[in-house]
């Protein structure tokens, strides 16, 4: 099975609100959870607004991944993880939590202390499905790649495979290796190399994800996804190139290339999303 969706549901051309979004896409990445631990009521609302088989990829709070600059509004790491887990409980109870995504920053390199951080995170998150995305190339250097993937398999991490500009050392290559037999995540960040090299200006984050994938680029990815299906039962694909409204168009384009069709139903009814 392949599920294709976007990062967030607001601000995409032709779509207003989660209910309208879920009629077109079967999965979404919640990124507001990265900036703040969301109130439980938000997740309760999102669960009610989506079909029964809809899925959420919830991005881990920035304090849990080391992105937080300044004071973290929690007395301890234990309290922070507990607050996050409590906030997402409605999604989990509804069976709509596909995975929680832990995307680590570019300075999170391949060292023993950082391996310990990953083990601590797995312990605190319990049996929730967790996806792991690196932003430092040291994890996938030739001498470390096999060890990194073996570690992810042993520790139970879902591999978040990324398409992003190759900027040393703050990005990782495309590594087509599922580490979980049930789930694999693919995230498209665009290929705006210039904006990744020199983030500057007030709207640098928007410029970073300003990119539209070509038909040829997506056709190559359709081949890769078919190959990945031999090693994992379900693939979730998220388009994060949303600065210029390109994500939705590219997502629908890839779905067509893969022969994937989705017709969402109102919440409470059954919908199907099959390859």
TrEMBL record:
It comes from the Bacteria. InterPro entries: DUF72, UPF0759_sf. The lineage of its organism: Bacteria, Bacillati, Bacillota, Bacilli, Bacillales. Transmembrane segments: none annotated. PANTHER family: UNCHARACTERIZED PROTEIN YECE, UPF0759 PROTEIN YUNF. This is DUF72 domain-containing protein. Pfam families: DUF72. Gene3D superfamilies: Protein of unknown function UPF0759. It comes from Tumebacillus flagellatus.
């Amino acid at each position: 099975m392949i599920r294709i969706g976007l990062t967030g549901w607001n601000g995409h051309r032709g779509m207003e609100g989660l209910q309208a979004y879920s009629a077109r896409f079967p999965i979404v990445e919640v990124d507001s959870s990265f900036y703040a631990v969301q109130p439980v009521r938000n997740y309760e609302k999102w669960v009610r607004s989506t079909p029964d088989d809809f899925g959420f990829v919830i991005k881990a709070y920035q304090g849990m991944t080391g992105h937080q600059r300044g004071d973290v509004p929690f007395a301890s790491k234990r309290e922070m993880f507990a607050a996050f887990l409590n906030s997402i409980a409605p999604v989990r109870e509804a069976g709509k939590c596909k995975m929680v995504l832990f995307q680590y920053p570019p300075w999170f390199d391949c060292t023993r202390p950082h391996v310990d951080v990953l083990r601590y995170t797995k312990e605190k998150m319990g049996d929730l499905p967790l996806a792991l995305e690196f932003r430092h190339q040291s994890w996938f250097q030739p001498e470390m790649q096999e060890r990194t993937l073996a570690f992810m398999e042993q520790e139970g991490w879902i591999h978040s495979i990324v398409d992003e500009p190759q900027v040393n050392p703050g990005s990782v290559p495309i590594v087509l290796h599922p580490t979980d037999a049930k789930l694999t995540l693919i995230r498209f960040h665009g290929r705006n190399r210039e904006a990744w090299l020199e983030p500057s200006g007030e709207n640098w984050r928007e410029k970073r994800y300003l990119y539209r994938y070509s038909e040829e680029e997506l056709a190559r990815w359709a081949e890769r996804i078919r190959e990945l299906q031999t090693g994992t039962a379900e693939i979730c694909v998220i388009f994060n190139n949303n600065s210029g409204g390109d994500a939705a168009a590219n997502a629908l384009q890839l779905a067509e290339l893969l022969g994937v069709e989705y017709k969402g139903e109102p919440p409470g009814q059954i919908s199907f999303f099959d390859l």
